[in-house]
Amino acid sequence: MNMESILGFAPIILMFVAMWFILIRPAKKRQQETQNMQSSLQRGDKVITIGGLHGVIDSIEDTAVTLVIADNVRVKFDRQAIGRVVNDQV
Question: Which CATH number describes the domain made up of 1-83?
Answer without folding.
Answer: 2.30.30
